[in-house]
Structure formats: structure tokens, C-alpha cells
Structure prediction request, 110 residues.
Amino acid sequence: GETRSTDFPIKKHFQERNAGGFDVFVTKIKGSGNILSYSSYLGGNSTDYGRGISVDDSGNVYVTGWTESSDFPTKKSFQESKSKKEPILYFKRTDSYCSFFHFAPYYSLL
Prediction:
């Protein structure tokens, strides 16, 4: 999902603060429903949208969506800069925290 909140509940985060406009959030809630395992913002200086989330058998989390931010955080990216207004973004969490940002490539929309 995404949020404009500046006080969204954060725990074991990759990104501690909203970077501007709407930011994607990635949150895992424990089975009891009232305890956060981790929760983080993910975004840049403009609007970022989270549209899909999936967890594989190893517990890795994948988030898809798009961004209008010129400074969306990238790592091991296919393309380091945007070529259109709303490229697709990807995020992978591979540890028990939401602090290991594995990759976020830009891919232009057709």
C-alpha cells in the first residue's frame, strides 16, 4: 500500500521517514494481529504507489508498483534513472528486518 502519513508505525525499517507525497509501506504483522514484525516506508521525493505484494516460500517479500519520484532508492538496478514518469519498482526483503534492500530496478511502462 501507500501512505502520506508522517507518523506511520515503523519497526526494523529500511526507510525511517516519509520522503515526500505518498510513500509505499511494507509491513508484516505477527499472527496475533497486534504486534509488528517489521514496517518501513519505501519511496522518494514525490508520489510512490505500492500495488502488489507477494511472499515466497523462503519468506522473501516482493513489492510492485510505480513511482513518480526522481530519487526513488535503487540498488542493483536494471536502469539507474527513469525514462518515463511512472516506472515500475520492485523491492525484496531477505532478512527478519525490513532493512535489507536487495534491488529496485526501473522498467519503463509501454
In short: The radius of gyration is 13 Å. The chain has a mean pLDDT of 76.
